[in-house]
Amino acid sequence: MQTKFRAISLSHKTAPVQIRELISLDEQSIQRILLRLKEFFSLSDALILSTCNRTEVYYSHDLDLSTEIIKLIGLERGLADVVNYLEYFEIFNEDRLAISHLFRVSMGLEAQVVGDIQISNQVKRAYQTAADLEMAGPFLHRLMHTIFFTNKRIVQETAFRDGAASLSYATIELIESLTSNTFQPRILLIGVGEIGEDVAKNMVYLPEAKVKITNRTQSKAEEIAGPLGFEVVPFENVQSAMDEADVIVCSIMKNEPFITKDLVKKFNIPSYKLFVDLSVPRSIETSIEDVPGVILYNVDNIRSKASEALEKRLEAIPQVESIIEESIEEFHNWKKEMMVSPTINKLKQSLEQIRQEELSRYLKNADEKEYVLIDKITKSMMQKILKVPVVQLRAACQRDQAEEMIEIITDLFDLEKVKSEK
């Protein structure tokens, strides 16, 4: 019986942002959990993906380890009552379902904004982390490279990635809508991590806006703001910059709120002030909405308006799903062949051992020319003998009868005995 590929998923489809931010993992936490999985359960294939919209663990094991893995996440996040959140996790214990889910997530079909290109890069980084920690075996390597190839096909063959319909662009559409009656709206972007950087680049679609950027590491803000023509505000001046801005977009990693109700109450708000919280965990207290004139949106309630790009993506979904199914079928064919590969190798070793023993037995006195000729003949005979069982094994894979054929060939050639004698 082959080890099953499984998945655990907590996402925007199963949990609100206040639950997702409790479970969200940073890079160091991901590495620690992967190492524990390796130590406690001897996992050789495991991948952890944690974004603002999802925290997921993919792994290969004979047993369902979902509860144990969720407890490990709780331990890492300091959640003694993590079992109370089990209902928010979706568990995929069927091999094909887990693989299909990873494909759909990687392509952006499960994203909050369909086709979000960011998820593809996030999956690549998750895979790199697993590989760096030697948590990616032949199975996961092959699966991930199949996913990357599928993504390339989707970009080349469909309109699914055309236009800009990412979460970041959805933020731009929201700002454009809410500031439509404001002349040259003043926008402050706090934090230029992955999402913040993407938001900054999409700010070019707001040509009338006056954009300022601030970041804890000023050089990073300058690197991004420079080519875009935006002003950089030193991080120590962030509060005065917030006071002046009409729109504040916050995308920073912080365990406690960075923008509080008490802080916002100090601001001069003659008309309105829009706050957009793209952080998970959230960096803006929800109670700021109690302050007159304040409007707050977070990653859950940002909704992209109907756009031509999004419509094209939605129309392309059937084509994308068809390409994914082709890739999954191809991958499963490879997986089936991997199942019979050890038996084929053992059969080859068994026959080669017999061949070598017989050569040693009968060619003790043969000269070099005779030995080379007979060695060549016996190798050719062995290849022809191997051909039929190998073809039958591969055919059995396609019929989903590989296990039965493995058992027959193992018994017929006494391969278990050969293994035990080695």
Explain this structure to me?
It contains 15 helices and 10 strands. With 422 residues, the chain is an alpha/beta fold. It has a 6-stranded parallel sheet, with helices on both faces. The chain has a 4-stranded antiparallel sheet with strand order 2-3-1-4. Strand 6, helix 9 and strand 7 form a beta-alpha-beta unit.
Tell me the layout of helices and strands.
Blueprint: E1 4-11, H1 17-23, H2 27-41, E2 46-50, E3 54-61, H3 66-77, E4 90-92, H4 95-107, H5 118-132, H6 138-157, H7 167-178, E5 186-190, H8 194-202, E6 210-214, H9 218-228, E7 231-232, H10 238-244, E8 247-250, H11 261-264, E9 273-277, E10 294-298, H12 308-362, H13 368-398, H14 402-412, H15 415-421
Parallel strand pairs: 5-6, 5-8, 6-7, 8-9, 9-10
Antiparallel strand pairs: 1-3, 1-4, 2-3
Helix pairs in contact: 2-3, 4-6, 4-12, 5-6, 6-12, 7-8, 12-13, 12-14, 13-14
Give a summary of the structure in a few sentences.
The chain has about 425 residues and is of the alpha/beta class. About 55% of the residues lie in helices and about 10% in strands. Keywords: NADP, Oxidoreductase, Porphyrin biosynthesis.
